[in-house]
Amino acid sequence: MNRTLRIGTRGSALALAQTGHVADALRAAGADVEIVTISTPGDRSSAPIAEIGIGVFTSALRDALANGEIDVAVHSFKDLPTARDPRLAPAAVPPREDPRDALVARDGLTLGELPVGSKVGTGSPRRAAQLAALGLGIEVVALRGNVDTRIRKVTDGELDAVVLARAGLTRLGRAGEITETLEPIQMLPAPAQGALAVECRVDDVDTEHLLQSTLDDSASRAAVTAERALLARLEAGCSAPVGALADVVEDLDDQGAAVLRLSLRGVMATEDGDLLRASATGDLTAAEELGRALAVELLDLSGLAAARSEGRS
Ligand SMILES: NCc1[nH]cc(CCC(=O)O)c1CC(=O)O
């Protein structure tokens, strides 16, 4: 294949870093690539994500890909709507970065060390709900903007801390500013956090094969598939209070032989702000079923929770 692949990306520092990694991997495999920056309405607006809607960062990129302006699109997987775009093929999920959330706090503090009344910034209802549920007496402050803007609120003293995806900081070379990596037991990440989605046009079979064979990591893909199936079944967008994390774990089959399985944990906030948690394990090859089954379990729990809160009122 001698054509130059045009790889589209958003213009944020994070998006450029992510796309740079993908471009390097493709070049190392002998492909000729060029990076094209596409501005999205999400980048131009400063309104809260919950108001401007899911897909603001990704739909302009997807349109450019479908129109033939670019040949490959690189997205943060967690920013993609759960519905598949029929014009595009989800060609590759590269090896995932650490999916956990991270705290960047003043004076090197951890969550547990933040004094009562501390202001912690996040624009994510998922992070806000899980922070509130820790019962630390901290004040969660709404926040938007790129990684640099958010961290600057801490350096400037406006906030005591912010919560961000560890993966974003790592990709920007700023992991050294993390003061605590939050364990999933207290803060489950967004479904697909830390993973990238690399797409091409659905009829561009050559590119699909190239992307798949050079970039795709089957374990990352299985984990993300389970997490996203859970999210889709809960019919929640990227900013809804749903967290999920799948790990590939070694288990023993009926004959005692080692097999790899998926272990999935999920959390969902109720309207009352209570957290519902559930977990399940399943076959690596049945990731979607696992995600859907765990979503149903969470929905059952939320039905019980709703009935209980009716009883109280
Ligand atoms: N919604 C913004 C967004 N989309 C992807 C990342 C980080 C990288 C990733 O999760 O892959 C971020 C920033 C953040 O949540 O801190």
From TrEMBL:
<dbReference type="InterPro" id="IPR022418">
    <property type="entry name" value="Porphobilinogen_deaminase_C"/>
</dbReference>
<comment type="subunit">
    <text>Monomer.</text>
</comment>
<feature type="domain" description="Porphobilinogen deaminase C-terminal">
    <location>
        <begin position="223"/>
        <end position="299"/>
    </location>
</feature>
<dbReference type="Pfam" id="PF03900">
    <property type="entry name" value="Porphobil_deamC"/>
</dbReference>
<dbReference type="InterPro" id="IPR000860">
    <property type="entry name" value="HemC"/>
</dbReference>
<dbReference type="GO" id="GO:0006782">
    <property type="term" value="P:protoporphyrinogen IX biosynthetic process"/>
</dbReference>
<keyword id="KW-0808">Transferase</keyword>
<dbReference type="GO" id="GO:0004418">
    <property type="term" value="F:hydroxymethylbilane synthase activity"/>
</dbReference>
<dbReference type="GO" id="GO:0005737">
    <property type="term" value="C:cytoplasm"/>
</dbReference>
<feature type="modified residue" description="S-(dipyrrolylmethanemethyl)cysteine">
    <location>
        <position position="238"/>
    </location>
</feature>
<dbReference type="InterPro" id="IPR022419">
    <property type="entry name" value="Porphobilin_deaminase_cofac_BS"/>
</dbReference>
<dbReference type="Pfam" id="PF01379">
    <property type="entry name" value="Porphobil_deam"/>
</dbReference>
<protein>
    <recommendedName>
        <fullName>Porphobilinogen deaminase</fullName>
        <ecNumber>2.5.1.61</ecNumber>
    </recommendedName>
</protein>
<dbReference type="InterPro" id="IPR036803">
    <property type="entry name" value="Porphobilinogen_deaminase_C_sf"/>
</dbReference>
<dbReference type="InterPro" id="IPR022417">
    <property type="entry name" value="Porphobilin_deaminase_N"/>
</dbReference>
<comment type="function">
    <text>Tetrapolymerization of the monopyrrole PBG into the hydroxymethylbilane pre-uroporphyrinogen in several discrete steps.</text>
</comment>
<keyword id="KW-0627">Porphyrin biosynthesis</keyword>
<feature type="domain" description="Porphobilinogen deaminase N-terminal">
    <location>
        <begin position="5"/>
        <end position="207"/>
    </location>
</feature>
<comment type="similarity">
    <text>Belongs to the HMBS family.</text>
</comment>
